[in-house]
C-alpha cells in the first residue's frame, strides 16, 4: 500500500486523505461497541460521561450496575451474603435465570445444528450430489428469510401442533434456533471441505479402513476446526436471537436477549450497559477462538496464508 | 469403451464378475449419489419440518380466516359452525343483491346463535378488520337479538342503522367463505366496494404501500451508504500485507460477532438527545444546549444504526473479491500513462463489480427484512414493514393481515435471493 515513487503531489495528498478516511470508518465500526464499556462503570444513572468520569475521579466510577445484575429480581437482595443469599440469587435473580435459559437453549440448538449441518455438508461436498444447488439454497434460506417471517410462521405452526402441551421445555425455541444456526454450520463446514484433499479418504480406504474409521480418523480431525467454528456461529446465533423467543417463547422462557429487549423498551437502566459489556467481552473471546481455529484449519490442510 | 458403444456385436469390457463396465460404473455412481443424498436427507427433513412447513402455514393463513364461520372452543378444541343461515342466503343470492327480509331474518337467527356460543366478539372482530366499528355492532346485535320481532329488517335497523350499509353486506359475504383475498388486497391498500369492484382505499388510509415504499427507499439508502463506507476499507485491507490486514480485520469482525442488541443499545446511547454525541457537540460549542439534535426515534436513527450493523456484510464480500486482484494491472495502466484516477476507473473498479453485486444484494436483502433495530431506534417514521407485521401479530391481533404482509415481503426476498444465487452463487457466501 506504499505510495509509488512516481506519485504526483496531488496523489500524495489524496493518499493521506484516503488513509484518514479509512481510520474514520474503522472508528465508526468499533467506537460504538467500545463506548459501552466505560459507561457501564458510571456511578450515576446516566448514559453519558459525567464530569467526574472525564476527570478520572474514582468516585465517578462504580460497579453498582454489575451488582444490580446479580441482585435484580431476588426475594431478599439486601440480606447478608451467606449460602441462602446465593441460593436466592441462583433461583430468582432475573439475569441469572435468563443466562441459564440462554445456555440451555443454545447448547441443544448448537448440538442439533452442528450434527445435522456437518452431515449435510459432507454430502453436499461430494461431487456426485444430485440437485446440489437447489438443496443448498433451501438449507441456507433460514439466514436469508427475514426473522419476523420465520417467527410468524413458527407461531402459527407451533400453535397448530400444540407444541406447548408436549411437556418438553424450550422445545419450540430449541428447534427454531437450530434451524437459524444451520446455514452458518453449512457455510463454514463446506468452506473447510472445499480445500479438502479427497485422495486422503481414498488412501485410507486403500489401506483397508472402513468408511466409519475413515470418517473418524481422517476426515473428522481435518474438518474439526471448521465444525467448531460453525458450532460457535450457531451458538452465537441462538444466544443473540430475540424475535423467535418473543413470538413463541412462554412467559417463563426468558433469555438474555429477551431480558435486554424488555429492559431497552421500558427504560434503559445502565445495568443494560453492564450486560452489553459482558457480551462484548464474550464476543472478543469467540472471535479470537474462531481466528485460532481458522489458522489451525489452514495449517492442517496445508494452506498457508499468501 | 468407444468400441463397446460403436460396435454392438462386441461384448465390450467387463468387470471380473462379468458385468459390462458401463453398467458397473453407472451402478457405482448411482450408489454414491444415493449415499451423498442420504447424508443430506436428515437435515433436509429437519428444515422442511421446522422452517418450510411453518412458512407454508403462514402463507395459508394469509388467505384463510375462519373467524366468521367457525367458533372454536379454546379448551376442548371443538368447532361449531356459526353464521350458517347467512352463508346459505349468500349462496342462494348472487353478489350485489339487495339484502331482503329473508337475509335479515337469517342474520338475526345467526346473531342469536352468536349470543349462545359467545362468538359475537370473534365474528365482529373478523368484520372489523375490513370495516372498523363493526365489532360493537355485532356484540350489541347479539345481545339484543332475542328480543327482536319481525319484520327483522326494521327491527335491526332501529337497533342500529349501520346494518343497512351495503359495504357491510359485501364484507360479510366475503368473510362467510374461509378463503379470501381481502387481506392481500388490504396489504396493498386496496379494497372492494359494495359492488365487489377492487379500488384504492381513501388517501388518508393508505399506509401499507407507503411503508413498503419507505422500506425499499431506506434499504437502498443503507445499501449505498454501506458500499461507500466499505469500499475504501475493503481496498485498504486487500492491499495491505496480510500481517497488518489480519489485524485490522478485527475492526470488521468484532462488530460482526457482537450481539445485535448490544450494537443497537450502543447507538441508542450515542444518539440520545442527552447522549454522548449531543453532549460532545454541546461541549465543543457546535450546537447550543437548547438545540440538541434529534437523531433517534426517526429515520436518521434507523439509517445510522443499520448502516453500522450491516457494514461487515458489505466489507467481507468486497474484500474477498479485491484480495486476488493482481496489483500489476494497475501498475501497467500507470506505466502506459493513465492517471491514478483513470487506472482506478478503467482497471481496478470493473474487477470489483462482482464484489459490489454480492455485498449490495446481501445487504439489501438483510435490510429489507430488518426488525429489531428499527423497532428500537426507529420511532414512528423510521420503522420498516417488519415492524408492521409484528404490530399486527402482537397488538392488533389481525394475524391474517400480518401473514399477508409477510407473504408479500417473502415474495420480494425470494426474488432477490434467487437473483443473488444466479449472480453470486449461494455457495460463495463467506463468513470472515
From TrEMBL, chain A:
Gene3D superfamilies in alphabetical order: MetI-like
Location within or outside the cell: Cell inner membrane; Cell membrane
Record-level GO cellular component terms: plasma membrane
Broad class of where this protein is predominantly found: membrane
PROSITE patterns in UniProt: ABC_TM1
Ranges annotated as spanning the membrane: 16-41, 103-124, 136-158, 170-193, 214-236, 271-293
Swiss-Prot/TrEMBL GO biological process terms: transmembrane transport
Ranges for domain ABC transmembrane type-1: 99-291
Keyword Heme appears in the UniProt entry: no
InterPro entries, A to Z: MetI-like, MetI-like_sf
Membrane topology designation: Multi-pass membrane protein
Keywords: Cell inner membrane, Cell membrane, Membrane, Transmembrane, Transmembrane helix, Transport
Family of the protein in this entry: Belongs to the binding-protein-dependent transport system permease family.
Record-given protein name: ABC transporter permease
Native source organism of the sequence: Profundibacter amoris
From TrEMBL, chain B:
GO BP terms: transmembrane transport
Keyword match NADP: no
Record domain ABC transmembrane type-1: where: 212-420
Pfam families: BPD_transp_1
The keyword Membrane appears for this protein: yes
Subcellular location field: Cell membrane
Gene3D superfamilies: MetI-like
GO CC annotation: plasma membrane
PROSITE patterns associated with the record: ABC_TM1
Record's signal peptide: none
Keyword terms of this UniProt record: Cell membrane, Membrane, Transmembrane, Transmembrane helix, Transport
Membrane-traversing stretches: 36-55, 218-238, 244-262, 300-321, 355-377, 397-420
Recorded topology in the membrane: Multi-pass membrane protein
InterPro entries recorded: MetI-like, MetI-like_sf
Protein family membership: Belongs to the binding-protein-dependent transport system permease family. CysTW subfamily.
Record protein name field: ABC transporter permease
Naturally occurring in which organism (per UniProt): Profundibacter amoris
Amino acid at each position: 500500500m506504499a505510495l509509488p515513487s512516481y506519485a504526483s503531489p496531488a496523489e500524495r495528498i489524496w493518499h493521506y486523505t484516503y488513509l484518514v478516511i479509512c481510520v474514520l470508518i474503522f472508528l465508526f465500526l468499533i467506537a460504538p461497541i467500545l463506548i459501552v464499556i466505560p459507561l457501564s462503570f458510571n456511578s450515576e444513572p446516566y448514559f453519558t460521561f459525567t464530569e467526574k468520569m472525564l476527570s478520572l475521579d474514582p468516585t465517578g466510577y462504580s460497579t453498582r450496575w454489575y451488582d444490580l445484575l446479580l441482585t435484580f429480581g431476588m426475594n431478599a437482595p439486601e440480606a447478608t451474603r451467606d449460602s441462602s443469599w446465593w441460593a436466592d440469587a441462583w433461583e430468582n435473580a432475573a439475569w441469572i435465570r435468563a443466562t441459564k435459559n440462554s445456555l440451555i437453549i443454545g447448547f441443544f440448538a448448537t448440538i442439533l445444528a452442528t450434527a445435522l449441518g456437518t452431515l449435510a455438508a459432507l454430502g453436499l461436498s461430494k461431487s456426485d450430489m444430485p440437485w446440489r444447488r437447489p438443496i443448498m439454497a433451501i438449507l441456507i434460506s433460514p439466514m436469508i428469510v427475514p426473522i419476523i417471517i420465520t417467527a410468524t410462521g413458527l407461531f402459527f405452526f407451533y400453535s397448530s401442533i400444540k407444541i406447548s402441551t408436549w411437556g418438553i421445555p424450550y422445545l419450540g425455541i430449541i428447534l427454531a434456533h437450530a434451524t437459524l444456526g444451520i446455514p452458518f454450520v453449512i457455510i463454514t463446514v463446506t468452506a473447510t471441505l472445499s480445500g479438502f484433499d479427497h485422495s486422503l479418504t481414498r488412501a485410507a480406504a486403500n489401506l483397508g479402513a472402513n468408511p466409519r474409521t475413515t470418517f473418524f480418523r481422517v476426515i473428522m480431525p481435518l474438518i474439526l476446526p471448521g465444525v467448531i467454528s460453525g458450532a460457535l456461529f450457531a451458538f452465537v446465533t441462538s444466544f443473540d436471537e430475540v424475535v423467535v423467543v418473543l413470538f413463541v417463547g412462554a412467559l417463563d422462557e426468558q433469555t438474555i436477549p429477551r431480558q435486554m429487549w424488555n429492559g431497552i423498551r421500558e427504560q434503559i437502566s445502565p445495568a443494560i450497559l453492564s450486560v452489553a459489556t459482558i457480551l462484548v467481552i464474550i464476543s472478543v473471546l469467540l472471535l479470537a477462538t474462531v481466528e485460532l481455529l481458522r489458522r489451525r484449519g489452514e495449517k492442517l490442510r496445508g494452506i498457508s496464508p499468501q | 469403451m468407444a468400441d463397446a458403444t460403436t460396435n454392438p456385436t462386441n461384448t465390450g469390457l467387463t468387470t471380473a464378475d462379468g458385468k459390462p463396465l458401463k453398467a458397473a460404473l453407472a451402478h457405482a455412481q448411482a450408489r454414491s449419489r444415493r449415499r451423498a443424498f442420504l447424508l443430506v436427507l436428515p437435515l433436509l427433513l429437519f428444515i422442511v419440518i421446522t422452517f418450510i412447513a411453518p412458512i407454508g402455514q403462514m402463507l395459508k393463513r394469509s388467505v384463510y380466516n375462519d373467524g366468521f364461520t367457525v367458533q372454536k372452543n379454546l379448551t376442548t378444541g371443538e368447532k361449531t359452525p356459526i353464521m350458517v343461515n347467512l352463508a346459505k342466503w349468500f349462496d342462494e343470492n348472487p353478489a350485489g343483491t339487495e339484502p331482503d327480509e329473508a337475509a335479515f331474518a337469517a342474520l338475526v337467527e345467526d346473531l342469536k346463535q352468536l349470543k349462545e356460543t359467545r362468538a359475537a366478539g370473534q365474528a365482529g372482530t373478523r368484520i372489523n378488520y375490513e370495516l372498523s366499528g363493526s365489532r360493537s355492532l355485532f356484540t350489541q346485535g347479539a345481545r339484543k337479538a332475542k328480543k327482536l320481532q319481525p319484520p327483522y329488517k326494521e327491527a335491526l335497523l332501529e337497533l342500529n342503522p349501520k346494518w343497512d350499509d351495503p359495504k357491510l353486506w359485501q364484507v360479510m359475504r366475503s368473510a362467510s367463505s374461509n378463503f379470501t383475498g381481502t387481506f392481500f388486497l388490504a396489504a396493498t391498500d386496496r379494497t372492494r366496494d359494495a359492488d365487489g369492484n377492487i379500488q384504492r382505499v381513501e388517501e388518508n388510509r393508505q399506509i401499507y404501500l407507503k411503508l413498503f415504499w419507505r422500506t425499499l427507499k431506506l434499504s437502498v439508502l443503507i445499501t449505498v451508504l454501506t458500499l461507500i463506507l466499505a469500499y475504501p476499507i475493503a481496498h485498504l485491507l486487500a492491499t495491505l500485507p496480510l500481517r497488518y490486514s489480519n489485524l485490522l480485520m478485527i475492526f470488521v469482525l468484532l462488530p460482526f460477532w457482537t450481539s445485535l442488541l448490544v450494537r443497537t443499545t450502543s447507538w441508542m446511547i450515542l444518539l440520545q438527545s442527552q447522549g454522548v454525541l449531543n453532549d460532545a457537540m454541546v461541549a465543543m460549542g457546535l450546537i447550543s444546549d437548547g438545540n440538541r439534535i434529534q437523531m433517534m426515534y426517526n429515520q436518521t436513527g434507523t439509517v445510522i444504526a443499520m448502516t453500522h450493523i450491516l457494514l461487515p456484510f458489505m466489507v467481507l464480500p468486497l474484500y474477498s473479491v479485491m484480495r486476488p486482484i493482481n496489483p500489476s494491472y494497475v501498475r501497467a495502466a500507470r506505466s502506459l500513462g493513465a492517471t491514478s484516477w483513470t487506472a482506478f476507473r478503467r482497471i481496478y473498479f470493473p474487477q470489483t463489480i462482482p464484489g459490489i453485486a454480492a455485498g449490495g444484494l446481501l445487504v439489501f436483502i438483510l435490510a429489507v427484512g430488518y426488525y429489531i433495530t428499527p423497532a428500537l431506534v426507529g420511532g414512528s417514521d423510521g420503522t420498516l414493514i417488519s415492524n408492521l407485521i409484528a404490530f399486527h401479530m402482537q397488538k392488533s391481533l389481525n394475524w391474517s393481515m400480518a401473514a399477508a404482509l409477510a407473504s408479500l415481503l417473502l415474495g420480494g426476498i425470494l426474488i432477490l435471493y434467487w437473483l443473488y444465487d444466479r449472480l453470486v452463487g449461494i455457495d460463495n457466501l463467506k463468513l470472515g
